[in-house]
Design brief:
heterodimer, A: 3-stranded antiparallel beta sheet, 3-stranded antiparallel beta sheet, 17 helices, B: alpha/beta, Beta Polymerase, domain 2, 2 domains, 5-stranded mixed beta sheet, two-stranded parallel sheet, 26% helix
């Protein structure tokens, strides 16, 4: 890796008048999601990668200033399509913090259960996407089929499959339906069983390991400097997890370990996500055992005003640190909301850094090993 | 530990720290813009190695922009929230790219959506908007509804500019 970088020092190439080829990566959906990068290369080696985001910029932060807090929870779903519960979790918590209310215990437990199911959902979707990027098509079909099981749970509890609109400041919109606990346990058993299949088919498959091992090595100090968080940072050996460091909602009541690896290559990032699915299954089981009876929300009127001031809240989304900063001016609408999505740093800072000096064929593997979400990046 | 950090900062920069709160493993600081860079670099030396975000808030009534730097320390597990204010007429501030390289894209976003000039940032090209000619869209004096009506439903436009 170092040798390639030395040879491909940009100035030197210009001096020697070596001609570049520029290749577009994306924005077609199967390749990169709604994201375009221009890859400048010499022969097969990448010299520079320039990201061009913006295909999914919908200006949510600004739109939220025109809507009340209950409406904004629905906008939050759309920030990241694959991981809606974490975004709702961040927003409702920041509003609760700013207005000084607290959700009842049952509401907190329900929120945490759904957020963890959302994490499993997001990681299983990722198994499908990275299998597609590496040409392991059967992995894609099976993973996206299993994703449907959790989406059914979403539908059962909330009525929405992809965009649940379930959390609300002060708790959740409605209680779990009857028999939902058993349904969750059935799905968890099924996914736990499927993990053996994924191990054989994806994680320990030679096609998979050979494409990802020693590719896109992100050193710990680079990862920290670039603002990388979540599983991508933990794969570089830094065990930071907001759920553990600043426990929120029902996380203080569960026992789980932070999955981390040391090497920092694309394969470690994959194994981190595999470990997190297993941890999340155990978290949901513990929460279902401990979930208390009682109210699931405190009353929150649609036009409830939030006292002027500001609040800041961070949670651990499936992709990393997700923070909301909200400024209120005493009306029912926020004055300013800032969303710090994990994919913003991963794709715009981390991806160009990792792409320098690699072969073109490794670009999709590196990109998808970071698990980017263009919707979350553009907002 | 958080109180310790605040007292060290206060002794080093007695003039510049306008207010400080430390509670629940979080430090909130409001600092003067003249020395904000020195304070941030001091915080970085003290172990705040992760720059989480750079947030801009348009304080239209006060005629100021508020810049909020969200820091986190992977070793100490403390959050630091440093705020500074710059005048709205000349929104210029020193870039912190040489402290945290990850700040580059956050500043680029702030430049595009609020029109703040970060001096020393090597690349402030637009990220999201294409051929934008209006005032930066996240400023409070930019009227989204008026813009949408004019741009997409104007008399000469027809429905979505196709008429």
């Amino acid at each position: 890796m170092e040798r390639t970088r030395d040879i491909l020092a940009k100035d030197e190439l210009e001096e020697r008048e070596i001609s570049f080829t520029t290749i577009p990566f994306g924005p077609q959906h199967p390749a990169s999601g709604h994201f375009h990068a221009s890859v400048k290369c010499v022969g097969e080696e990448v010299v520079e990668l320039t990201p061009y985001p913006g295909y999914l910029h919908r200006g949510f932060e600004r739109l939220m200033e025109y809507r009340n807090h209950a409406q904004n929870t629905m906008l939050c779903d759309r920030i990241c399509v694959l991981d809606p519960f974490s975004n709702e979790m961040g927003y409702v918590n920041v509003v609760e913090k700013a207005s000084g209310i607290e959700a009842p215990q049952r509401g907190k437990f329900i929120r945490t259960i759904m957020a963890e199911l959302g994490r499993i959902l997001s990681h299983i979707t990722w198994i499908g996407i990275i299998s597609m990027a590496l040409g392991l098509d059967s992995g894609t079909r099976i993973a996206w089929g299993d994703r449907e099981k959790i989406i059914r749970l979403n539908e059962l509890a909330t009525g929405g499959r992809i965009y649940p609109c379930y959390f609300i400041p002060g708790g959740v919109r409605r209680d779990f339906p009857e028999g939902f606990k058993e349904e969750i346990l059935k799905v968890l058993d099924y996914i736990e069983n499927q993990m053996k299949l994924y191990d054989n088919l994806v994680f320990y498959n030679t096609t998979f390991t050979m494409r990802l091992e020693n590719v896109g090595i992100l050193r710990a100090e680079d990862a920290v400097a670039l603002g990388i968080t979540g599983p991508n940072l933990r794969a570089s050996g830094i065990a930071t997890d907001v759920r553990k460091d600043e426990p929120y909602d029902a996380y203080p009541y569960v026992d789980f370990k932070v999955v981390f690896k040391g090497k920092g290559d694309a394969y470690s990032r994959a194994l981190c996500r595999r470990g997190e699915i297993i941890e999340s299954i155990s978290i949901v089981r513990q929460l279902l055992e401990k979930i208390p009876e009682g109210d699931f929300r405190v009353k929150w009127g649609l036009t409830k005003k939030v006292p002027s001031g500001e609040a800041y809240f961070c949670c651990e989304a499936a992709r990393g640190e997700l923070c909301f900063h909200m400024v209120s001016d005493g009306t029912e609408r926020p004055y300013r909301v800032k969303v710090r999505g994990p994919s913003f740093s991963h794709t715009l800072a981390g991806f160009p850094h990792l792409a320098k000096g690699v072969y073109i064929a490794d670009i999709p593997a590196i990109y998808w090993s970071l698990d980017p979400c263009p919707a979350d990046m553009d907002r | 530990m958080d109180n310790e950090i605040v007292s060290i900062l206060k002794s080093k920069f007695p003039e510049s720290i306008l207010s400080s709160v430390s509670e629940d493993k979080r430090i909130y600081l409001l600092v003067k813009r003249e020395e904000f860079y020195q304070i941030l670099s001091q915080l970085k030396e003290m172990g705040f190695d992760h720059l989480s975000d750079v947030t801009c808030v348009d304080m239209l009534a006060q005629g100021e922009f508020e810049l909020i730097y969200h820091l986190w320390s992977h070793t100490k597990k403390i959050r630091g929230i440093v705020k500074t204010r710059i005048p709205r007429e000349s929104p210029t501030i020193k870039s912190i790219v040489d402290l945290w390289i990850g700040a580059q894209i956050h500043e680029r976003e702030g430049h595009e959506l609020f029109g703040i000039r970060f001096e020393g940032n090597p690349n402030l090209m637009p990220l999201f908007l294409e051929d934008w000619e209006e005032i930066p869209p996240f400023r409070k004096d930019f009227d989204i509804r008026e813009y949408v009506k004019r741009e997409y439903y104007g008399e000469d436009k027809g429905y979505f500019g196709q008429g």
